[in-house]
């Protein structure tokens, strides 16, 4: 059992592990052009390096939470950190794209072990509500720095030693986490059933759907259509299997909860738009990796810092108002980004657009956590976080696939603004859904929730 005096060090270690996971999603963006040059791959190839990570993470997040409940959070956490560090080194040593994709997928699986188990460990270390709330705030603050630091740190690493350095950095971070968390943390175990089939079905649906998008980008319409039908069939089969599973991804209490699924859709929409910006800009800006990292700062700093102000907004007005504010700011910001990338030498327009995008993310994501939890039945509240994170990664996976295929045609004279326009449309759809009357009439929709202050 953990020694109380070591709790601060362990909290820092747990937070640093989540920092490492989030850093990997942002630090890679600025390395994309260097990966393309080094491995001689196109935009679609580097797109798969992004999507395969988020695909694996989305497919395994709920399973990772169930595994932590079944065998204990500490061994799952430690195994995830060790695996993440080792897979990162393997990514750095990859001789070609195929090897990189394999190890990126493993990174996603190990990240899916780290994310849910880290919160379980905090709950075990801090059993009183007050200290636990403060600990979660520290966890959120430390991990939130990854969003702001990722592009800048990644740009510096790429400049110093190429794209492989952005993976090498994870190895010493993992060692620091293991040292800080070397004292075992006792956590409750639950005799929960586990089932691989729903998660494998989800992974297959996302993988085939991504292939369909890439084939559509190549104008192979027949193959894209066939793959799309296969993806839809796999998704439908996954739903059927999940309903019959002893350990479903979606508990029965959530299946017909329309409001919660709207919240999940908002999470996917926000991550779609965010990933579109982070993935696309490094490929469009004629700048060094360091310059790209600095360019993204107006957005990433707000994503890291503004959730604290969003918590106060939710406390005063409920979650729907900041959600709507976010879905107003985001498409306007994407419009400015599209205008800036369509022309040349428009840093002010681009910076203002990224600022609005940062407000869009930081207003929306923290608030929709509280909205979804507030509409869930008590017995299903624990599942909401896992499914919400999974649907967010689904949005990121689709965004990277769409952006990579649309930007491929830029070299054939296609416009660079297309991915940003598509993302803006997705956000507008989010805004329309956030104004549905039945959400406003719901007694929980405007009720302030402490969950709204939980990390993204």
Describe the protein's architecture and organization:
The protein is mainly alpha-helical. The chain has three domains: 1-189, Up-down Bundle (Growth Hormone, Chain: A); 195-246, no CATH class; 253-456, Up-down Bundle (Growth Hormone, Chain: A), CATH 1.20.1250.20. The protein has 20 helices and no strands. It has helices spanning 7-27, 32-39, 43-71, 73-92, 97-125, 129-161, 165-168, 170-180, 197-217, 221-244, 252-255, 258-284, 289-295, 297-305, 307-317, 320-342, 347-375, 381-408, 418-434, 437-441. The model is unreliable at 442-456 (pLDDT under 50). This is DHA2 family methylenomycin A resistance protein-like MFS transporter.
Task: State the separation between the terminal residues, measured CA to CA.
Answer: 29 Å
Give the CATH class of the largest domain.
Answer: Mainly Alpha
Task: Specify Rg, calculated over alpha carbons.
Answer: 21 Å
CATH superfamily of the largest domain: MFS general substrate transporter like domains
Summarize model confidence as the mean pLDDT. Answer: 83
Number of helices: 20
Query: What is the 3D form?
Result: globular
Order of helices and strands: HHHHHHHHHHHHHHHHHHHH
* Domains, number: 3
Structural class: mainly alpha
Helix amount:
over 70%
**Can you count the beta strands?**
0
Beta-strand portion reads under 5%
The residue ranges in which pLDDT falls below 50 over 5 or more consecutive positions are: 442-456
CATH architecture of the largest domain: Up-down Bundle
């Amino acid at each position: 059992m953990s020694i109380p005096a070591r709790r601060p060090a362990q909290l820092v270690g747990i937070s640093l592990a989540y920092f490492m996971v989030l850093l990997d999603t942002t630090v890679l963006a600025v390395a994309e052009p260097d990966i393309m040059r080094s491995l001689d791959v196109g935009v679609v190839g580097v797109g798969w390096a992004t999507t395969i990570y988020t695909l694996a993470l989305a497919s395994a997040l709920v399973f990772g939470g169930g595994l932590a409940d079944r065998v204990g959070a500490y061994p799952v956490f430690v195994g995830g950190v060790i695996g993440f560090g080792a897979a990162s080194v393997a990514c750095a040593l990859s001789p070609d794209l195929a090897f990189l994709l394999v190890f990126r997928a493993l990174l996603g699986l190990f990240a899916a072990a780290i994310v849910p188990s880290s919160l379980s460990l905090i709950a075990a270390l801090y059993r009183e509500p007050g200290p636990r709330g403060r600990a979660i705030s520290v966890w959120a603050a430390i991990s939130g720095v990854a969003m702001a630091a990722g592009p800048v740190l990644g740009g510096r690493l790429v400049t110093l030693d190429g794209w492989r350095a952005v993976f090498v950095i994870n190895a010493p971070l993992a060692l620091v986490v293991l040292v800080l968390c070397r004292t075992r943390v006792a956590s409750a175990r639950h005799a929960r059933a586990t089932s691989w089939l729903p998660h494998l079905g989800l992974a297959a649906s996302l993988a085939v759907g991504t292939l369909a998008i890439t084939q559509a980008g190549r104008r192979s319409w027949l193959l894209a259509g066939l793959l799309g039908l296969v993806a839809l069939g796999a998704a439908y089969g996954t739903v059927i299997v999940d309903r019959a599973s002893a350990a479903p991804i979606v508990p029965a209490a959530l299946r017909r909860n329309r409001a919660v699924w709207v919240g999940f859709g908002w999470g996917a929409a926000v991550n779609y738009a965010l990933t579109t910006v982070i993935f696309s800009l490094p490929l469009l800006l004629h700048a060094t990796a360091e310059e790209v990292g600095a360019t993204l700062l107006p957005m990433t700093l707000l994503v890291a810092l503004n959730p604290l102000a969003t918590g106060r907004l939710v406390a005063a007005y409920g979650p729907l108002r900041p959600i709507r504010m976010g879905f107003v700011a985001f498409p306007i910001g994407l419009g400015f980004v599209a205008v800036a990338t369509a022309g040349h030498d428009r840093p002010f327009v681009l910076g203002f657009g990224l600022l609005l995008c940062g407000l869009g993310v930081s207003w929306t994501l923290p608030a929709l956590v509280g909205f979804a939890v507030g509409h869930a039945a008590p017995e299903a509240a624990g599942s909401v976080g896992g499914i919400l994170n999974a649907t967010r990664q689904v949005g990121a996976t689709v965004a990277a696939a769409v952006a990579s295929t649309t930007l491929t045609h830029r070299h054939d004279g296609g416009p660079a603004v297309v991915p940003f326009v598509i993302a803006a449309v997705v956000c507008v759809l989010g805004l329309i859904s956030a104004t549905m009357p039945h959400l406003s009439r719901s007694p929980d929709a405007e009720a302030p929730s402490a969950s709204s202050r939980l990390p993204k």
